[in-house]
Design brief:
The protein has 157 residues and is mostly helical. It is built from six helices and two strands, in the order H-H-H-H-H-H-E-E. It is elongated.
């Protein structure tokens, strides 16, 4: 067993949060994978709990935890499938990840709206350079209805 695996087992056995944080802060993906490979099955469910707690804590730099989680699933999937406790351990992680990705969907929609406004603004600027005065009766370039993301269309002449 390499030293990180030994430290991880000690951290899991003693429930030492600082020692777990030390392990989770490691950024070497190969070392993380090798450590998870060497972990015995009876420690995997406890590790899943600790990963979930750490993700839920809202601490910064949780990116490494996703590597840990990925390697746990990759290398211990047969144990996880057989274990009756897996569903209760993974369900909170799935709910947490879904909650986090919901914000990403909302941000992507907001970015799309902002991009649309900026595109219209740049089109108006381009037209202003080409003609000194905008026609008041000119049709809009884009029609957008708030709340119904599917109801916007580019108006063509």
């Amino acid at each position: 067993m390499d030293s990180l695996a030994v430290v991880l087992v000690q951290a899991i056995q003693s429930n030492d949060v600082q020692l777990l944080d030390y392990c989770f802060e490691n950024e070497d993906v190969n070392l993380i994978e090798n450590t998870v490979k060497k972990l015995s099955d009876n420690r995997v469910l406890v590790l899943l709990d600790r990963i979930g707690e750490r993700i839920d804590s809202g601490k910064k730099n949780n990116y490494n935890l996703f590597a840990w989680l990925s390697f746990v699933v990759k290398h211990h999937s047969s144990f996880l499938i057989k274990s009756p406790e897996t569903a209760s351990k993974i369900a909170p992680l799935i709910a947490l990840l879904q909650k986090r990705t919901l914000a990403i969907d909302q941000l992507c929609r907001l970015k799309g709206k902002i991009d649309m406004v900026l595109d219209v603004e740049s089109e108006v600027r381009r037209q202003k350079k080409g003609q000194k005065k905008l026609n008041v009766g000119q049709r809009p370039l884009v029609v957008y209805e708030e709340g119904n993301e599917r109801t916007f269309e580019r108006v063509t002449n």
